[in-house]
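ugh ok fine here u go
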Amino acid sequence: MPDTRGRYAESLRNDKVLLAGARRAVARRGADVSVADIAAESGLGVGSIYRRFASKEAVLQYLCTLALEQVATAAEQALAIPPSWSTFAGFVESVVEFEPGSLATVAAVVTVTDDMWSSALRVRALLADVLRRAQEAGLVRVDITVLDLQAIIVQLGRPSPGLSPQAQADVRSRLVTVTLDGLRPQSYSTLPGEPPTEAGFDDIWRPSSDQPGR
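structure:
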């Protein structure tokens, strides 16, 4: 009898390795990243990747969905425990470590699938729940919107090419700490400009068939 559980566990491990490798490859090559680049960074064979996916675009589409689901899982875990500053800050720190900004450039150039769009909407809803709960508990300033939080996570989650892994981790930790301090409700400045709207954010993840001219 086939060991389906073993194969499933191996598939999950490969997904994790593939996603980590893709993030490193995109950090180096940007949206022009190739499957060979991803394979080299992940330690997997190009042939083994193409046995699962029909094209480079299919690989990138799957990885974008996987990255979104990673954020969704972290949000669900944060929502499963009582609200506190450490819960909110720990959530932001953990998702920034996923480097969501590394694949945002890829999402802008591939054909957006229904799965990508569905996952993006799910992440938005979960982020809204995390933020609302923290604001209602008096932990986070009330003028921050879910799109502000989404932008913070994406921007802080962009890799810095040229830095060593340790230097990059140190810089990111410092920026996250400064940003989190700015989200606390005590004595903050009025935010300049208008709050972000859903239009610009949604255009990245909306299925191409739903976008004029794409």
